[in-house]
Amino acid sequence: xxxxxxxxxxxxxxxxxxTHLCWNDxxxxxxxxxxxxDVRMTEDKPTAIRSAVSLVKVLWTVSIITxxxxxxxxxxxxxxxxxxxxALGFVGLVAGVFLSSPSALLQVFS
Length: 110
Description:
By secondary structure, the chain is mainly alpha-helical. It is built from three helices and three strands; from the N terminus they run βββααα. The chain has helices at 23-36, 48-100, 102-109, and strands at residues 3-6, 12-15, 21-22.
C-alpha cells in the first residue's frame, strides 16, 4: 500500500515504509546531471553564402526530380499509353530522388 506524506521541509514523498521517492531531490539531481552534461549545439548565424548554397540545393533537387519524372512519363506515354505513363513516371520520380542526392545513391549501392 503506497502512502503519501509531506515532510516539514515541504518535500512530497510517495511510497511505502521501505521505498521513498522524493520529487524535489529527484528534480535537483536531474538538473545537476544536465548541468554536468551540457552539450548544446551552437548554430552559426546564416550567412549569404549558406543561404545561396541552400537555395542551389533546393533548386537542384526540384529540377532533377521534375525532369526525371517528366521523362519517365513521356517514355511511358509513348510506349504504353496511360498506365505506362503512370508507372514510368513513378519510376522516374524514384530515380530523381536518388539522382538528386548522390550520397543516397552511393549508400544504396554499398
